[in-house]
Amino acid sequence: MWLTLLYSCSGGAALLYALYRWVIPTAVQYHGGLALIWHDVIVERMLDTLTQSTRPQRLLSAVQKNATRGDPCSVVKAIDQFCRQKEWAMNVGDEKGCILDSVVSEVNPATVLELGTYCGYSTVRIASLLPPHAKLITLEFNPEFAAIARQVIAWAGLEEKECGLLRKGSILLADNVICPGTPDYLEYVRSSPKYKSQYFKSHLEYTKVEDGLEKSVFLG
């Protein structure tokens, strides 16, 4: 009787783990709304309760454990591994990160303004590609996110790039324009004669849901 109960409990636990780790994440890969509800609401709240920590704190711990101090590439890699193998997070992600890298390298800006950094992932990618005397201004409304981002940026050895505007030729690069979506912003930059915009099709970070980046050049 006890062996039967033990086997039943073990089987049930294994089924729940399989649902949590593989079945449900795979099922929501192609649906933006379900992916956000699963990863950004259900899983995050469950892990916050179980670990008595927040997702940004867990991400920072992964960086400190797996990334080499002073090496931006290893910080980006550690966050990508954390988000793909452990816990999804709303970073720009590795796929769209390559688009971001190419735009930064193409423009080679002297000053960058970033609105919203979350845990510092995109800030690290941008700052690591800037020329020596360039400056990155990043604004984050959430004080917890800002505190974590500072530590991630410092771990990457890029704190001297962060300080804290538009002129002809300035580049705006907006993320998550499809999922969750920024229809008002897209309508504005695409219809305004002051901007020349280009859409880069991609996917919501670490999923197969369509998303993208909108690159807009301010024409003056």
The strand count comes to 5
- The number of helical runs is 9
Indicate the proportion of strand residues. Answer: 5-15%
Rg, Å, rounded = 20 Å
Look up the CATH topology of the largest domain: Rossmann fold
Order of adjacent strands in the largest pleated sheet: 3-5-4
What is the CATH level 1 assignment of the largest domain? Alpha Beta
H-E string: HHHHHEHEHEHHEE
The class by helix and strand makeup works out as alpha+beta
Largest sheet: 3 strands, antiparallel
CATH homologous group name of the largest domain: Vaccinia Virus protein VP39
Mean pLDDT: 88
Report what the structure shows.
- It is a single chain.
- The chain is an alpha+beta fold and 220 residues long.
- It folds into 2 domains: 53-163, Vaccinia Virus protein VP39 (Rossmann fold, 3-Layer(aba) Sandwich), CATH 3.40.50; 166-220, no CATH class.
- It is 55% helix and 15% strand.
- The protein has 9 helices and 5 strands.
- It has helices at 2-27, 32-51, 55-66, 72-86, 93-107, 121-127, 143-155, 177-181, 183-191, and strands at residues 111-115, 135-139, 171-174, 195-203, 210-218.
- A 3-stranded antiparallel beta sheet has the order 3-5-4, with helices on both faces.
- α3 runs parallel beside α7 and α5 (93-107) runs parallel beside α6 (121-127).
- The chain is globular and about 65 Å long.
